[in-house]
From TrEMBL:
It comes from Mus musculus (Mouse). Coiled coil: none annotated. Residues 4-31, 32-59, 60-85 form the C2H2-type domain. It comes from the Eukaryota. InterPro entries: Znf_C2H2_sf, Znf_C2H2_type. It is found in: Nucleus. This is Mszf37. GO terms for molecular function: DNA binding; zinc ion binding. Belongs to the krueppel C2H2-type zinc-finger protein family. SUPFAM superfamilies: beta-beta-alpha zinc fingers (SSF57667).
Length: 85
């Protein structure tokens, strides 16, 4: 059961805490902003986790087009766009 509803969009939540946190998506009031891309987060730990996405190297490169990926599984999935499999 999700008794807490957002009055702006109707999305429902299991706790009042989650509903209040969600309100930041509408107001833009989240205090922790990424200086690289501008995304904002309600918690400092969320911003820290996000920042890792800017620092991680893309180690797996497609030999056909040069596009690079963080994970080998992503590369394998991408390779099917060239082979049609």
């Amino acid at each position: 059961e999700k008794p807490y509803e957002c009055m702006q969009c109707g999305k429902t939540f299991t706790s009042g805490h989650c509903a209040r946190r969600h309100l930041g998506t509408h107001s833009g009031a989240w205090p922790y902003k990424c200086e690289v891309c501008g995304k904002a987060y309600p918690y400092v730990y969320s911003l820290r986790n996000h920042k890792k996405s800017h620092n991680e190297e893309k180690l797996y490169e497609c030999k056909q087009c040069g596009k690079a990926f963080k994970y080998i599984s992503s590369l394998r999935n991408h390779e099917t766009t060239h082979t049609g499999e």
